[in-house]
C-alpha cells in the first residue's frame, strides 16, 4: 500500500454477465464451456449483411439491476459502436451504450473496516462481450463462444480509498446482483469481473493523480493484491521524481507485479457513433414502475431487519442472508413457528450440518416449512426429547416423511406418563442406596446421576424435566 503521506484513489468498472439463455443480439446460447465456437451464429461471427435483434430479457434484467442499485433508469437510451481491432472481435466494433446509457447514478453501500460506506455509481450500460484468444505454443486460436454475450458494465465514481474497501464494495455489488437474479456471481468463469482504475495523491490534495487501468481481475484476492501493488509502484515513481503514464496494465500474480499492456485510450480513439442498425431503446414509465413493484427486499435491508426487528445476532443474520434461497426458506419456516431465534438456531445448527454432510443446497431439501414447524411443535409439547428431535429432524431431512409418521416408526415418542417413570425411579433408587443417602445428606447435585439412570431404563425416551421433578420428590423421602 502507499506510504503514509499518499492516498490511493480507486474507481471500478464491473462487467457482469446477464442471466439470459441467449446472447444480446442473437439467439446463440450463452452456456459456459462447450467446444470452441459451438455457441455462435452468423451474428456472432459478424458476417456481412446480418442484423442484430435486441434480447428483451437482457433489457428487463438491466432495469432490475438499475432499480436495485438506486439508479435513474432512462426512458431513452442509445446504442453505439465502439471501434477497435482485435482478432476476437470479428465485426471490428463492439455494440455498447456510450453517450446515453440505460442507467445513470446510483450507489452501492457496504460495511468497511471503519463503518458503513457508500460508493456513487456513474452509470450502468449494456454491451456485448468479445470472444477470447486461446494460445497454444506459437499459435493463437479464436473462440467466439462468448462473443455477443450480454453484459452490464457498472462504473463507479473514484470514491474508494483502500483495496480492502474495493473488495467489500465488489462483494456487496455481487450479492445484490445474485440476489435479484441478474448475475450468477461466478468470478472463475468470468461472469463477474472488474477493471480497476488506480491512482495516488498526497493526503490533503484534491487533485487526482494519473490513473492506470488494471484489466480483467477475476478474484477478490487478486483484486486486492493488484491494487496494492499498483499503488506502491506509482508512489515509488513519484518519489523518485518520475511521472506516472496513463496506461492499461495487467496483473501477474506469479510475479506479484503489474506490467504495461498498452497506452490507455481515450474515448475519441474508439470512434464512437450511434449504431445505425439499432433504434434507440425506449422504456415506458409503466414498464419501469412495473419492474420496481417486483423488486425484492435486498440482502442488506433484510440483514438489518433480522437484527433490529427479529432480535437475531448480526452473525446469524449474515449467514441467513448470504443466499436468497436460504433466506426465503427461513422466512417461510418462521411464519410456521413464530420464534425467530429458535428457527435460526436450527438453521445455523442441524440444518447447516446436514446440508454440508449431504453436499446439497437449500433448494434440494425434501421437507416443507409446515413439517419443520411440526418438529419444533413436537419438542415444545414434549412429544419428543431434545436428542429425539435431532434424530427426528435428520430422518425428516433424508426422507421428507411426515414427522408424526417418523415418530411412530422410530419409536421416538417421549414417555410422559408418570407411571413408567415412577417405576424406573424406584428401581434406580433401589440400585443405588448410598447415592440416595448422599442426596439426603445434602449432595443435591447427584440428582443428575439419577436422571441418567432413569433415562437408561426408559430407553432415553423419558421427559427429563418431569423425571427431575419426580426424582426430587422421591429422593426427599
How would you describe this structure to a colleague?
There is one protein chain. The protein has 477 residues and is of the alpha+beta class. It folds into three domains: 6-287, no CATH class; 323-410, no CATH class; 418-475, Orthogonal Bundle (Arc Repressor Mutant, subunit A), CATH 1.10.10.410. It is 39% helix and 20% strand. It has helices at residues 56-68, 163-179, 220-239, 285-293, 299-308, 314-320, 324-337, 340-358, 369-380, 386-399, 403-410, 418-431, 433-440, 447-457, 464-475; strands spanning 6-17, 72-73, 76-77, 80-83, 93-96, 103-104, 107-112, 115-128, 132-136, 139-143, 150-156, 192-202, 212-217, 247-252, 257-263, 273-274, 281-282. Strand 13, helix 3 and strand 14 (247-252) form a beta-alpha-beta unit. Helix 10 (386-399) packs across helix 11 and helix 12 packs across helix 15.
Amino acid at each position: 500500500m502507499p506510504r503514509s503521506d499518499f492516498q490511493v484513489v480507486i474507481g471500478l468498472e464491473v462487467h457482469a454477465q446477464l442471466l439470459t439463455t441467449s446472447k444480446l443480439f442473437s439467439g446463440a446460447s450463452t452456456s459456459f464451456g462447450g467446444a470452441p465456437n459451438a455457441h455462435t451464429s452468423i451474428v456472432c461471427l459478424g458476417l456481412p449483411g446480418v442484423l442484430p435483434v435486441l434480447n428483451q430479457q437482457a433489457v428487463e434484467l438491466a432495469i432490475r439491476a438499475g432499480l436495485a442499485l438506486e439508479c435513474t433508469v432512462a426512458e431513452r437510451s442509445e446504442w453505439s459502436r465502439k471501434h477497435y481491432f482485435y482478432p476476437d472481435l470479428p465485426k471490428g466494433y463492439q455494440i455498447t451504450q456510450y453517450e446515453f446509457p440505460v442507467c445513470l447514478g446510483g450507489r452501492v453501500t457496504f460495511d468497511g473496516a471503519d463503518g458503513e460506506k457508500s460508493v456513487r455509481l456513474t452509470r450502468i450500460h449494456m454491451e456485448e462481450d468479445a470472444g477470447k484468444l486461446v494460445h497454444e505454443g506459437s499459435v493463437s486460436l479464436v473462440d467466439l463462444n462468448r462473443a455477443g454475450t450480454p453484459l452490464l458494465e457498472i462504473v463507479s465514481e473514484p470514491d474508494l480509498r483502500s483495496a480492502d474497501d474495493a473488495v467489500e464494495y465488489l462483494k456487496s455489488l455481487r450479492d445484490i446482483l445474485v440476489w435479484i437474479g441478474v448475475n450468477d456471481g461466478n468470478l472463475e468463469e468470468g461472469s463477474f469481473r472488474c477493471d480497476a482504475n488506480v491512482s495516488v495523491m498526497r493526503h490533503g490534495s484534491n487533485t487526482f493523480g494519473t490513473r492506470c487501468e488494471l484489466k480483467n481481475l477475476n478474484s477478490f484476492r487478486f483484486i486486492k493484491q493488484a491494487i496494492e501493488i499498483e499503488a506502491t509502484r506509482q508512489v515509488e515513481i513519484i518519489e523518485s521524481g518520475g511521472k506516472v503514464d496513463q496506461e492499461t496494465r495487467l496483473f501477474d500474480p506469479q510475479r506479484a507485479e503489474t506490467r504495461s499492456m498498452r497506452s490507455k485510450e481515450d474515448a475519441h480513439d474508439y470512434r464512437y457513433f450511434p449504431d445505425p442498425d439499432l433504434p434507440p431503446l425506449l422504456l415506458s414509465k409503466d414498464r419501469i414502475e412495473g419492474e420496481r413493484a417486483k423488486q425484492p427486499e435486498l440482502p442488506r435491508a433484510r440483514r438489518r431487519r433480522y437484527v433490529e426487528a427479529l432480535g437475531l445476532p448480526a452473525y446469524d443474520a449474515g449467514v441467513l442472508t448470504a443466499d436468497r434461497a436460504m433466506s426465503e426458506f427461513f422466512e417461510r419456516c418462521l411464519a410456521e413457528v413464530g420464534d425467530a431465534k429458535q428457527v435460526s438456531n436450527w438453521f445455523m445448527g442441524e440444518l447447516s450440518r446436514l446440508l454440508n454432510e449431504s453436499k446439497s443446497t437449500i433448494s434440494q431439501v425434501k421437507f416443507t416449512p409446515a413439517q419443520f414447524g411440526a418438529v419444533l411443535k413436537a419438542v415444545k409439547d414434549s412429544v419428543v426429547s431434545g436428542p429425539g428431535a435431532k434424530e427426528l429432524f435428520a430422518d425428516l431431512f433424508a426422507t421428507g416423511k411426515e414427522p408424526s409418521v417418523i415418530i411412530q416408526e422410530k419409536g421416538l415418542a417421549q414417555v410422559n406418563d408418570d407411571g413408567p417413570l415412577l417405576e424406573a425411579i424406584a428401581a434406580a433408587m433401589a440400585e443405588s442406596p448410598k447415592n440416595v443417602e448422599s442426596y439426603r445428606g445434602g449432595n443435591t447435585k447427584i440428582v443428575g446421576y439419577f436422571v441418567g439412570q432413569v433415562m437408561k431404563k426408559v430407553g432415553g425416551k423419558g421427559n427429563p424435566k418431569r423425571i427431575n421433578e419426580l426424582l426430587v420428590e422421591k429422593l426427599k423421602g
